[in-house]
Amino acid sequence: MIERALNLQQCFKDATLEISASSYPTLSYTIPIYNYLIDLIEKFLKEESYSNDIINAIDKAKLKLQKYYPTTNGLAYITAAIIDPRLKLDYFKDQDFDEETIEIYQQQIINLWKTKYMPTQNQNNNQATNKSSGLMAYMLHETDYPNLARIARDFLAIPGTSVPVERIFSNSADLISSKRHSLNPETIKICMCLKSWLKFTNEK
What we know:
mainly alpha, 2 domains, 66% helix, RNaseH-like_sf, 0% strand
């Protein structure tokens, strides 16, 4: 029982690290990760009998996940998942989301497209089919799918958690020291961006 509980905790740790990364798009995988963790909890509770304390702890974890689960109001999460060529609307169908929910998601994307991203008459309106990393697929075909690339930049570039941003703020202490506390805000911004981009380039 202890081993299974530790394995469950490890899954939560792995999911946290995955969604907290900064070198690849993470927002589109927020919904799949939530579903994965909720399914793990339900499977965990079904496979064996546990004490009331363990059941209560697991139930609270599930309730916490459900509390923050991206709903139909979470347009950014839904858009990121659907625009990601690795997921698309097919993900929700494969996960047996009810037809009404899928219809709501689809209509939200259509409304977003019509109000902000619909191409002009001479622009291409095809879809990206590349199965590589979501944002990269649109970067590679930006000239072919300029409007879809705009959506990808606007949504897939959003981090799935605040961890990458908090990490940058923490690193800023190395730049803004007691000897450099008078730096211009724009200079600080440029330096922090360059540092982040160089780190990403080196990781590649």
